[in-house]
Amino acid sequence: MSLLLKLEQIVARYAELQAQLSAGNLDSQKFVAASKEYADLGPLVESVNAWRKAEQELKDAEAMASDPDMRAIAEEEAAEIKKQLPDLERNVKRMLLPKDAADEKNAILEIRAGTGGDEAALFAADLFRMYQRYAAEHGWKFEVMELSDTGIGGYKEAIATVTGRNVFAHLKFESGVHRVQRVPATEASGRIHTSAATVAVLPEAEDVDIKIDEKDLRIDVFRASGPGGQSVNTTDSAVRITHIPTGVVVSQQDEKSQHKNRAKAMKILRARLYDAERQRLDAQRAANRKGQVGSGDRSERIRTYNFPQSRVTDHRINLTLYKLDEVMEGRALDEIIDALIADDEAGRLAELAA
Predict the structure, then answer these.
(1) What percentage of the chain carries pLDDT values higher than 90?
(2) Exposed, middle or buried by CB within 10 Å (0-12, 13-18, 19+), for 20?
(3) At 289, is the pLDDT very low, low, confident or very high (cuts 50, 70, 90)?
(4) Phi and psi at residue 181, to the nearest 5°
(5) Which of 6, 114, 200, 268 has minimal CB crowding within 10 Å?
(6) Cβ distance 353 to 94 under 8 Å?
């Protein structure tokens, strides 16, 4: 279907809904549904009308230019309208893009040390703090759910819930392998080491998003232990939940209460199952597309943090910033995230036009 035909259908549907609502003969359920659809279509129809109006004004100005007395004014007016048209068209296309249903959700952030031993664990802790500061910059709530400390300030694994407005929309492109290049504090010769950590951002699932049958769960309880295996709890409060159909395993031992650990573990399990289902559907939709940003492929290195050069490079969009300290403080991370969002949008707009 051509873009113009699609827009004509949308404008016609908007007019139809307006007539139905004005007539006042819909039952309450249909009235609510029609009102919501009418409200959702309103901004798009306004944008379409603004684009159409500008195109008509351009035609009028070009027609007026045939009059020698009006030519200078008409050409100036036409030139001004021509500058506006691309933005008006782009705005309409942007509003036609399908929305990611998970964009407005909260997120579960999981960071794990990768290759590189103690240095990888220290970098994982640095990344965790970076996102904690970024959340604070946006006024989001950042709740630590699990920390697996190495004992020297590094994290083998760290999990947090990030709660706020459009959290997943901002963080969803952070999933992947993050690589660091720096001289470890323990390196006497000053040699630069390369290590990595893996970041996974999952939309927080609600009961309505994913149904989990109790008979599909195996729940084990055990005594919580701290770094090095020492006991930190004298009761069997730690919980391990296995989702038998998928083999997904979640453990929680941060809380002293078995009930609280179980609730946290279920929240993480639900998010992981929801994310797996999203990825399955995304893979189906993207089967014929290559190089899609945010496809969820976490096997690829997505970003490098080079400390000697104070450089951060996102390899998916070839963006390099020489402000590593500001990125790690969370202040400049939006420059990368906004560019990733814009790149994703541009790719989807190109598909819409194809």
Answers:
(1) 43
(2) middle
(3) very low
(4) -125, 115
(5) 6
(6) no
- Other beta carbons within 10 angstroms of residue 87's beta carbon come to 11
318 backbone dihedrals φ, ψ, rounded to 5°: 55, 45
Q: What is the mean pLDDT of residues 17-44?
A: 89
Q: Rounded to the nearest 10 degrees, what angle do helices 71-96 and 28-64 cross at?
A: 150
- φ, ψ of residue 240 in degrees (nearest 5): -125, 120
105 vs 205, 206, 338, CA distance in Å? 8, 9, 18
How do residues 91-133 score in pLDDT, each as one tens digit?
888 888 777 778 888 899 999 999 888 899 999 999 999 999 9
pLDDT of residue 339: 93
Distance CA 140, CA 297 (A): 26
Angle at 47 between CA 57 and CA 335, to 5 degrees: 115
3-state secondary structure the chain: CCHHHHHHHHHHHHHHHHHHHHHCCCCHHHHHHHHHHHHHHHHHHHHHHHHHHHHHHHHHHHHHCCCCCCHHHHHHHHHHHHHHHHHHHHHHHHHHCCCCCCCCCCEEEEEEECCCHHHHHHHHHHHHHHHHHHHHHCCCEEEEEEEEECCCCCEEEEEEEEECCCHHHHHHHHCEEEEEEECCCCCCCCCCEEEEEEEEEEECCCCCCCCCCHHHEEEEEECCECHHHCECCCCCCEEEEEECCCCEEEEECCCCCHHHHHHHHHHHHHHHHHHHHHHHHHHHHCCCCCCCCCCCCCCCEEEEEECCCCEEEECCCCEEECCHHHHHCCCCHHHHHHHHHHHHHHHHHHHHHC
pLDDT at 300: 63
Contact predicate 342/334, CB 8 Å: no
> How many C-beta neighbours within 10 Å does residue 10 have?
17
pLDDT of residue 284: 60
The mean pLDDT of the chain is: 85
Describe the strand order of the beta sheet including 238-243 as a list of residue ranges. 217-222, 238-243, 248-252
Contact 106, 54 (CB under 8 A): no
